[in-house]
Design brief:
It contains 12 helices and 13 strands. The chain has helices at 13-24, 36-46, 100-107, 122-125, 143-152, 157-171, 184-201, 210-221, 269-280, 297-302, 319-335, 345-359; strands spanning 2-6, 52-60, 63-72, 76-78, 91-92, 111-118, 128-138, 175-178, 228-236, 239-248, 252-260, 288-293, 305-315. Helix 2 crosses helix 8 and helix 11 (319-335) packs antiparallel against helix 12 (345-359).
Length: 360
């Protein structure tokens, strides 16, 4: 196995086409976060600095057989676009055998941290330290078939949404859905609502960082047919009630950034908007709405499929790997204790530190 490491902007048209072909061959890889366009978009806004976006191209006998992007620093590597990236993985030919440590060695680092690695990828499986379910809505058979399947499964979310929609129309006014909205006003309102939500919950406001705002704006303004961000809006009686900014690939729409007006909370406008998106997908080239990881009731009820993702690290013998191993040791020891929320503190601290690292 040979490796060539390049900047995303230096990928040749042939390499981009090859990468896209490998993605198309496996629905599990059909995420916009695993595309060459994502790596290129992130590099454009982050530029060159202490950490740089790179792509490891895997080759056998001169033939390109795999692609793995990462943000590379002096000692460690992390996912491209973290913490805004919901998937990581190696886009490669089926059955390709490669050692993870050889891969990070080619990137020139001592350690690779990952947060949402596709669990089914054997190359990283033994390096995982935990797992989460990423919820997926498969509507390949159409919305009516999906709705019937959810009803048969005992999920009431769609029926409840229909009731709330009728209630909105009675009490507020007409419900208006728009896909691929180009409203900069609604886009700005989305970011304002998300920032307010971060402040209210004590989370790091990722929407006030220069490169993340630039990335969102560029993707919102994009016109590429197979990659970009799509703004979906829902108005009640002429007022903006909910707004979503989702990434799309060739066949998948990935639920990314969602917010709603707190005044309309009782009508669950975010869920109504998801329902309208699923209906809209009937006439669009997309067959999956990926809701991403995170155990929320609406995801459990809307989803009819899913795929597992893992967090962990790959390390070569080094101080960087030793430090990460120690951090996971403290985290796992705490999580094994019956201390309730106290047991979760080391894990929360690690995740918050990773967010700060990604934003810097």
């Amino acid at each position: 196995m040979d490796f060539e490491v390049v900047r995303p902007q230096d990928l040749t048209p042939a390499s981009i086409e090859r990468w896209a072909a490998l993605q198309s061959a496996d629905i599990a890889l059909d995420s916009p976060f695993l595309s060459p366009q994502w790596a290129r978009a992130v590099e454009r806004v982050q530029g060159e600095g202490a950490r740089n976006v790179r792509v490891a191209i895997l080759k056998e006998a001169g033939r390109e057989v795999g692609f793995f992007p990462a943000r590379v620093g002096s000692f460690t590597a992390m996912p491209v676009g973290a913490p805004m990236c919901d998937y990581q993985g190696l886009v490669a030919e089926p059955g390709l055998r490669v050692e993870a440590k050889d891969l990070i060695g080619a990137l020139g680092v001592d350690r690779l941290d990952f947060t949402f690695m596709l669990e089914e990828q054997a190359v990283f499986a033994k390096h995982a330290r935990g797992r989460d379910l990423s919820y997926v809505v498969d509507v390949a058979g159409g919305y009516e078939a999906y709705e019937a399947e959810r009803r048969a499964a005992g999920a009431s979310v769609l029926k409840d949404s229909d009731k709330k929609r009728r209630k909105v129309e009675r009490e507020v006014g007409p419900v208006e859905f728009q896909a691929f909205s180009r409203s900069t006003t609604d886009f700005d309102q989305l970011l304002a609502w998300k920032s307010a939500q971060c402040r209210a919950t004590g989370q790091t406001d990722v929407f006030q960082v220069a490169w993340t705002r630039s990335l969102l704006k560029r993707l919102f303004e994009s016109r590429e047919p197979d990659f970009g961000a799509v703004l979906f809006t829902l108005h009640f009686g002429g007022e903006l009630a909910a707004v979503h900014l989702h990434l799309h690939g060739r066949r998948t729409v990935h639920g990314w950034i969602i917010a709603h007006d707190p005044r309309f909370e009782r009508y669950s406008p975010g869920i109504l908007l998801f329902q309208d998106i699923l209906r809209w997908m009937d006439g669009a080239p997309y067959s999956r709405l990926d809701l991403g990881p995170g155990d929320y009731r609406f995801k459990r009820e809307l989803s009819n499929a899913g795929q597992w993702v893992t967090h962990g690290f790959v390390g070569l013998p080094s101080p960087a790997a030793l430090a990460r191993r120690a951090a996971y040791g403290v985290r796992q020891a705490a999580e094994a204790l019956p201390l309730g929320r106290v047991s979760e503190l080391p894990g929360k601290a690690m995740r918050r530190m990773d967010v700060w690292r990604g934003l810097s």
